[in-house]
Amino acid sequence: MGRSIAIVEDEPLIRANYVEALNRFGYDARGYGSRREASSAFAMRLPELVIIDIGLGDEPEGGFDLCRELRAKSATLPLIFLTARDSDFDVISGLRLGADDYLSKDTSLHQLAARIAALFRRIESLKAPASSETVIEHGPLKLESERMRISWNGEEVPLTVTEFWMVHTLIRFPGHVKNRDQLMREAELVVDDATITSHIKRIRKKFIAVAPEFDAIETVHGVGYRWRP
């Protein structure tokens, strides 16, 4: 069986379509119709990736609550929102809660499969054999690729897979400006500018929570971002 994917969607027909399609793509996909049903299943065993709708049955924000719950269990579990709600407010709320990606339901199945494959690839590429683990140290920052761990003055900064990979991209070339296209390409993201901006804001907040004086990620207006050398 392929990697395990959970789809949390309250519409039975839509849920069945996604489960069937992802099984055809070689994944082991299972569907859940409510936040409660998904929560009890995940308490037994976490899948390897979760796709969540925002409105779940009688809970208009049930997907957001589930996302919070899953992030508390795992900082690196890949989470994708797949929803008919695609206002900027919802997109930013979803990313702020720690989702790796946010897609609208008119996204094609092939596009969805490409995003899923990209998230799995990013996780794999960060799991190099221990013997060749890359540790990058830059001032108070320490990045351990294989453990997908970033710490600042010895204190861990809890980043999602997407956030980790974006910091990884910036820190490899301190002082070099990375434009949004480069960040997307190197982090294997397929998102718009607003999404990149949301991720960067969220990364900064997480570093500031650990070190209030943090200002290492610099915005170069109209161009992109860089890690201060």
Give an overview of the whole structure.
- InterPro entries: CheY-like_superfamily, OmpR/PhoB-type_DNA-bd, Response_regulator, Sig_transdc_resp-reg_C-effctor, Sig_transdc_resp-reg_receiver, WalR-like, WH-like_DNA-bd_sf.
- The modification 4-aspartylphosphate is found at residue 53.
- Residues 133-229 bind DNA.
- This is Proteobacterial dedicated sortase system response regulator.
- It comes from Rhodanobacter glycinis.
- The chain has 229 residues and is an alpha/beta fold.
- The protein folds into 2 domains: 4-125, Response regulator (Rossmann fold, 3-Layer(aba) Sandwich); 130-227, Orthogonal Bundle (Arc Repressor Mutant, subunit A), CATH 1.10.10.10.
- Helix content is 42%, strand content 21%.
- The protein is built from 8 helices and 12 strands.
- It has helices spanning 12-24, 35-44, 62-73, 88-96, 109-125, 161-171, 180-186, 193-210; strands spanning 4-8, 28-32, 49-52, 79-83, 101-104, 135-138, 141-144, 149-152, 155-156, 178-179, 217-220, 224-227.
- The strands form 3 sheets. The chain has a 5-stranded parallel sheet with strand order 2-1-3-4-5, with helices on both faces. It has a 4-stranded antiparallel sheet with strand order 6-7-8-9, covered by helices on one side. A 3-stranded antiparallel sheet has the order 10-12-11.
- Strand 3, helix 3 and strand 4 form a beta-alpha-beta unit.
- Helix 4 (88-96) runs parallel beside helix 8 (193-210) and helix 6 crosses helix 8 (193-210).
- It is globular.
- The mean pLDDT is 86.
